[in-house]
Every structure is written in C-alpha cells, then in structure tokens.
Design goal:
Blueprint: H1 2-39, E1 46-51, E2 57-61, H2 73-91, E3 97-100, H3 108-121, E4 127-130, H4 138-144, E5 152-159, E6 162-169
Parallel strand pairs: 3-4
Antiparallel strand pairs: 1-2, 5-6
Length: about 170
Amino acid sequence: EKLNFCDKSLNAARRVKDEIMADVREEVEDRTRKEFFDLIWKEETYKDVTIDDNYNVSVMHQSGRHARGTLSAGERQVLALAFMAALNSVSGFDVPIIIDTPLARLSSEPKKNIAMNLPNYLKGKQVTLLVTEEEYTREVRERLANRVGREHLISFEETGMGNLAKVVPL
C-alpha cells in the first residue's frame, strides 16, 4: 500500500510539474510574440512566433512557412531581444541585464525603432548596453536619453602584458 501511495504521489507530482512547465512556456511564448511584433518593422511579413516544449523559437511567415532560417540578422536580433525580455519578465528574478551590441546588425530605421522601444519592454529593469559608436548614433542616443542614467567610454590601451581597458565617465 505504501509503495502504491508513493507511485501515485510521484505521478501526481509529475503531472503538476508538466502543467506548470507548459504554463510557463506558454507565457514565455505569448510575451515573446508580443515583444517581437512590437519591435519588428515588417509588420505584414510575419504572422506568429511559437516556442516548442524544448524552447526552440520559430517565426511563421504569412504564407505559413517557418521563417527563422530566412530572417535577416537584424530580425534575428529582434527575436533574440524579444525572447530575452520575455524570459526575464516571466522568471520573476529581478536582476540587471547586460546586452552586448544590441543594435549592431541593424539598419537605420530598425535601429531607431528598437532604441525607442527598448526601454519600454525592459521597463523597471537595470539595463547595461555595450554599444559601439556605429550603434550609438545621434538618433539612438536621443531616443534613449531620458532613460540613460550614466554613459561611459571604454578605451583600450596595449601594454606589455596585454590590453588594458579604461572606463571613463562621459
């Protein structure tokens, strides 16, 4: 009887775990979809974003085909940012976010669009952006200005022991 009770308890715990995991995945999927469509500049090209049980993210073209393999570098960047924001919001952890080269592969208009929306979908989070001068254009800087706490310039100096990074407040 005890063994039967333990088996039933273990099966019930597995079902609860599976239901919770499915709920979390669905919430991450919903938030990723919302963030992706808030940021993407080709609003008529794509119709859906899905995440399977293994957290593989897919984008569906309006034609019904999977589009992840044909996304441009900038569109993949938007998808990655959307997925990261969704994971961050669903996780419940309040940790700082560091994003390296978030605007690197984007052309001018998408870069401005992301710069304008980035603070909104990471609202309430401390975000550190590591950007190059090509990414941090005048337009991007203006769009982020009211949300930037501090700016620093990282410069590198070659030494006999390797490179030395200097961080200088602007």
